[in-house]
Design brief:
Elements: H1 2-13, H2 32-38, H3 48-54, H4 94-104, H5 120-135, H6 142-145, H7 153-167, E1 176-177, E2 180-181, H8 182-194, H9 199-217
Antiparallel strand pairs: 1-2
Helix pairs in contact: 1-4, 4-7, 5-9, 7-8
């Protein structure tokens, strides 16, 4: 996903200094767009003091430490959150959906993601993509190979971790990145889906997973 993420970011945000598709050293919190998307949703990337602290590895600087307990902005629809309801738009970020489609239904299908809160535009684009799959004898993608019928919590979690890593400045995979623990981040997201606190939360998770299946796998119900 390293090169694809750079392509998507450059196309969507049109930064003055495009994200380099090969050099990850220029990503992370030192890059304005990558930093904005990695920024924990409870912090303000437009606050210059917080930006400086986020980009520092100095352990004596407190208040802006990025850990596995924080959800980054790229997880959210339009990359922003409702401070009164932090679950609104969560796990509906456009680049996150593109990452999922690139891995599970082919990189070309990721180009069709437009996305809104309902997934309506995405569904329409997916119908066109599905038609092209039916008309052309193309190589089977992962969803077809493993006969995947719906989007699962752990497949979303896997892509979240991959996109997080793609935005970071770390050049090779490791489970610990400063104060950020990918293993714990994995379990935090899995618990969100698999251990919701009560029936209302379970219904919200069920609706979210149905939204994902509509967006990615053309499942309407």
């Amino acid at each position: 996903l390293k090169a694809l993420v750079a392509e998507w970011v450059n196309r969507e945000f049109k930064p003055d200094s495009p994200v380099n598709s090969d050099n990850k050293h220029t990503r992370g919190f030192s890059n304005d767009v990558c930093g904005r998307l990695l920024c924990p949703i409870e912090l303000d990337w437009n606050n210059p003091v917080q930006v400086v602290l986020l980009g520092s590895r100095d352990k004596t600087l407190t208040g802006c430490i990025v850990t596995d307990l924080s959800f980054p902005a790229f997880l959210y629809d339009k990359y922003t959150a409702n401070p009164d309801d932090l679950e609104e738009g969560l796990f509906k970020g456009k680049i996150l959906v593109q990452g999922y489609k690139a891995v599970f239904t082919s990189p070309s299908s990721a180009k069709d993601v437009e996305g809104d809160g309902d997934g309506a535009d995405v569904i329409q684009n997916n119908r066109r993509t599905k038609k092209s799959f039916n008309e052309l004898k193309v190589k089977k993608h992962v969803v077809q190979i493993i006969n995947m019928k719906k989007v699962t919590p752990r497949s979303i979690t896997y892509i979240v971790c991959q996109v997080q890593f793609s935005f970071s400045s770390v050049t090779s995979w490791r489970s610990i990145d400063g104060d950020f623990d990918y293993v714990q981040f994995w379990y935090t997201i899995v618990d969100f889906f698999e251990r919701p606190p009560g029936q209302d939360a379970q219904r919200r998770v069920d609706r979210l997973l149905k939204w994902w299946s509509r967006c990615v796998m053309y499942v309407s119900k």
